[in-house]
Structure formats: structure tokens, C-alpha cells
# Entry
Amino acid sequence: MEDRAPRTYGRVKGRPLRAGKAALLETLAPKLAIPAGPFDPHALAPAAVEVWLEIGFGGGEHLAGQAERRPDVLILGVEPFLNGVASLLRHVDEHGLANVRVLQGDARELVERLPAASLERVFILFPDPWPKTRHHKRRLVQRDFVAALARIVRPGGGLRFVTDWRDYASWTLERLLASPDWTWTAERADDWRKPPADHLTTRYERKALGDTAPIFLDFVRR
Ligand SMILES: C[S@@+](CC[C@H](N)C(=O)[O-])C[C@H]1O[C@@H](n2cnc3c(N)ncnc32)[C@H](O)[C@@H]1O
# Structure
């Protein structure tokens, strides 16, 4: 990642953590941490049938829910917000999930060190919308990042992007449709208006802070 890449996230720390979550950061986080340097998730979990990545998992309820549904899949999560990481750890602990790995940090940095075609699915759910024009450069979805994601997703694999900001949906669609690497799967309006069958509602989604109902964009890697 370029050192000067604009920051795409807000705060990295919120309210002081309660004792239980603080303890999980001490005890569980090191066991689930994605190591520094080149990282091959298949070598880490050879029995996993697929590897998925959730970028900006917030409180981690979607990631944990998917991990519970699919114990045969290894799910990587990356999130810079410490309190979000602690929340995910609580879900992992409460549900005894053995198929989750976590990085507190910037997804753009992790994506660079994953092997080519190593993932089956990527989720970007309700990314920070940065609605003001002068902040659009802070949006996670940029042409370079779309290409970087294409490198790590195997052909036939998927990318799910969901937002409740109309302009961010068109922004993303524009960039993905311009890319030679991705095909949009929608055939009718209901395909982007209705939650996909395997979607789990996120905390941010419930807040409904955007200017439209959620728009679900599913893409397939060519
Ligand atoms: C609006 S919140 C949505 C959280 C969650 N997906 C949900 O729907 O509840 C966006 C999240 O993306 C995270 N984020 C922003 N930029 C990121 C980046 N470069 N890498 C990883 N996460 C990022 C933020 O810290 C924040 O938690």
C-alpha cells in the first residue's frame, strides 16, 4: 500500500473496554492474529474448503454469524477499530468459533500480502460512505483496490458490496463495471434491492443512516 494512501476509516479506539473484552484482547487475540509478512491462509488452515475475507467487520456480528454457519470455511476479518475487534472476539469466544482469524488494521495492507487467487469470497458491508465530494478519495472502493481484490480472489469467486448510500452504490458499480475482472450478477432489480439469501443483517445496517434502503451488489471474479 502506498504510504500516502488516504485514510478510509474514522476512529481506531472508542470507549474504554469492559474487563471481559480487554481480557480477550490479551488472551484470545494473539491466538487468532493474522501474522505479519506474506500470509497464506490455506497453509494456516489446510482443512478449510474455502477462505473468505470480511473487510471492515465493525462489531463482527456478520463475520461471526457466517463463521458459525460455515465451520468448513476459514474467515479472515480486518478492521482498524479496536472496540470492533474486541466485539468480534467476544462473539468468537461465546460461540466457540475455531475458523476465524483477525487483523486489527487496514485491509489494503492485508490484501497486498495475500497470495494470488487465495480467496473465494470478499465482503465489504456498509463501508464508511464519505459522502462529501472532497472526501471521495477516502472511499475504500477505488480502481486500484478493485484490481488488488481481483488478484486475490480466484476466478468464479465473489465480492459482495453493500451500502445504504445511493451515490456510493453507483460509484462502486461504475468502478466494478469498468474493470475487466468482475461481472455484476444482477439480472433484475430485486437482485440488488433484496438481501441475498445468505446475508446477515449488520449493526450499521440496522442504524439506517444512509439515504436509501440497502443496495446489495454481488460480483463474480471472471
Ligand atoms: C460504517 S462501518 C460498518 C461496519 C460493519 N460492516 C457493519 O455493517 O456494521 C465501516 C467499518 O469499516 C472499517 N474500515 C474503514 N476503512 C477500512 C480499511 N481500510 N480496512 C478495514 N476496515 C476499514 C471502519 O473502521 C468501520 O468499522
